Amino acid sequence: MNCSRAPSCGNCGSSNHTKDNCLAATKCRNCGGPHRSDSRKCLARPTRSGAPTKEQMGIYRQAGDREYQAVLRARAAEENAVSIENMNAELTSSQLQENTKTTDNIQASHVEDSTRDARSLFNGNIFLNVYKAPHDPSAVQSLLDWKPTLKTIAIGDFNSVYWAWKPSANSYYGQGEEIERWAEKYNLTCLIVGEPTHRVGNTLDLVFTNISETMAWAGTEECMTNDHLPICGFVPNHKASSASLPTPKGKL
């Protein structure tokens, strides 16, 4: 099949070079999504049976660009989190010692918060347990007014659908754009992207953090009394690692 298009890089889609060892972020030339241009998953990829219509291409490229931007934002936030931690910015010792219990080098305490969400201090990391009531625009305000620390994890039921964490969504609700702006302002990475956390298939339960190497995912086991899947994760204990101690991990 003859093609009139100029040769391009299979990794980033650029026509300025054609080397496959490109170090740029992977981007499809056809739809703009975060995959190689020759990927079979690309719906906009030219085939022998014909090309997509103009209307179809518009839809494919819009979805691909949103997914690509979500990947770029997650990568940028992760890099920012690493840079911040490299500056050795820590909570003050007085904050760590106040109302703190110590067991096997692990510190945990409850922190009073003016918001309705529960906030806890664990090994110097702030955990914010979020619940945003659905169909209530005012419910998100307490989260937006809160300023995260340098070592923060915000986790819970956000009841929001937005392209940044569900690229395939056709409609948005639950103040998702405001939540995304809040996360971007404080360099928080969304760890749950494109992964259903609700039995209906939506991504409603989210995890935002600025702690490098933190991981989170939706559990596979369903809770019989809840229509949401459990959120599991791993938070590195950098202090313990530097002292050659085992790192606690498990469900958040």
Structural write-up:
This is Putative eka-like protein. It comes from Uncinula necator. It holds the Pfam family Exo_endo_phos_2. By secondary structure, the chain is α+β, with helices and mostly antiparallel strands. The protein has two domains: 7-87, no CATH class; 118-234, Endonuclease/exonuclease/phosphatase (Deoxyribonuclease I, Chain A), CATH 3.60.10.10. Helix content is 23%, strand content 17%. The protein has five helices and ten strands. It has helices spanning 54-86, 93-97, 141-144, 176-185, 238-242, and strands at 101-103, 106-111, 118-122, 125-131, 152-157, 189-190, 205-209, 215-218, 231-234, 250-251. The strands form two sheets. A seven-stranded mixed sheet has the order 1-2-3-4-5-7-6. A three-stranded antiparallel sheet has the order 8-9-10, with no helix packed on it. Helix 3 links the parallel strand 4 (125-131) and strand 5 (152-157). The protein is globular. Mean pLDDT is 74; it is low at 88-116 and 241-252.
List keywords for this structure.
Deoxyribonuclease I, Chain A; 23% helix; single chain; alpha+beta; disordered C terminus; 252 residues; seven-stranded mixed sheet; 10 strands; three-stranded antiparallel sheet; 2 domains
Determine and state the CATH class of the largest domain.
Alpha Beta
The tally of strands reads 10
Helix/strand/pairing category: alpha+beta
DSSP summary: helix tally: 5
Give me the CATH fold name of the largest domain.
Deoxyribonuclease I, Chain A
Rg calc: 21 Å
User: What portion of the residues fall into strands of 2 or more residues?
Assistant: 15-25%
Question: Span from first to last CA?
Answer: 52 Å
CATH homology group of the largest domain: Endonuclease/exonuclease/phosphatase
Mean pLDDT: 74
**In the CATH classification, which architecture of the largest domain applies?**
4-Layer Sandwich
Give the topology string: H per helix, E per strand. Answer: HHEEEEHEHEEEEHE
| Largest sheet properties | 7 strands, mixed
Which runs of at least 5 residues are low in confidence (pLDDT < 50)?
A: 88-116, 241-252
* Largest beta sheet: strand ordering: 1-2-3-4-5-7-6
**Envelope shape:** globular
The number of domains: 2
| Share of helical residues | 10-25%
Protein name: Putative eka-like protein
GO molecular function: catalytic activity
InterPro entries: Endo/exonu/phosph_ase_sf, Endo/exonuclease/phosphatase
Organism: Uncinula necator
